[in-house]
Design goal:
By secondary structure, the chain is mostly beta strands. About 10% of the residues lie in helices and about 30% in strands. It has a five-stranded antiparallel beta sheet with strand order 1-4-5-7-6, with no helix packed on it. Strands 2-3-9-8 form a four-stranded antiparallel beta sheet, with no helix packed on it. A hairpin with a 3-residue loop joins strand 2 and strand 3. It is globular. It starts with a helix and ends with a strand.
Length: about 190
């Protein structure tokens, strides 16, 4: 009997590890025929930041979506250690450095600063092809529930600025996974 109880406990713990891994990878999954777990909205909508910085160049920005949130990923290849960022809601999106207003569509604007320039600081060669005031290259957010627009702000003084248009002011989180900085915005409160 004791072995059966130990085996059952091990299976429960293994299942919890699989569920935890699926959440970290950004997938919301459930066994066939069952609804996924409820979506968390406990992230809040206040500013989130850290002053850590790797100062490695930004390589790419991608997006994806799940049943619970839309995701933007900043790939800072070669970064090791903590990545610096400041993410928060703004009333209007102004280009860093010049202060020029850049229109962003949506009911709310999330301004994202990542401590990674869009060029190699040593060679000056561009590593991410963002253009001030334009949509992010290669990013298609049509069909997303929360994301409505993306705009490149600037790469100024060692950081890159992005404006993310949202349909409304919603909870968001910022997490780091290796050399990627991830911004998730929930579909609802």
């Amino acid at each position: 009997m004791r072995r059966l109880g130990t085996a059952a406990a091990a299976l429960v713990l293994a299942g919890a590890g699989v569920v935890g891994t699926a959440g970290a990878a950004g997938a919301v999954t459930a066994p066939a025929g069952r609804a996924p777990a409820a979506c968390s909205t406990a992230w809040g909508s206040g500013n989130k930041s850290t002053t850590d910085a790797s100062f490695k160049p930004l390589k790419n920005i991608t997006t994806s979506r799940t049943e619970c949130y839309d995701r933007m990923v900043f790939d800072i290849g070669g970064a090791n250690g903590k990545l610096g960022y400041h993410v928060g809601y703004v009333d209007a999106f102004h280009q860093d450095g010049s202060g020029e207003r850049i229109p962003v569509k949506g009911g709310a604007i999330l301004q994202i600063f990542v401590s990674a320039p869009s060029h190699d600081p040593v060679t000056g060669k561009q590593t991410y092809a963002g253009t001030a005031g334009k949509s992010l290259p290669g990013v298609n957010i049509s069909g997303y529930k929360t994301f409505t627009d993306t705009k490149f702000g600037a790469s100024f003084e060692g950081q890159t600025q992005v404006g993310l248009g949202l349909r409304a002011k919603l909870p968001f989180r910022v997490v780091q996974s290796g050399h990627e900085l991830i911004v998730d915005v929930a579909h609802k409160w």
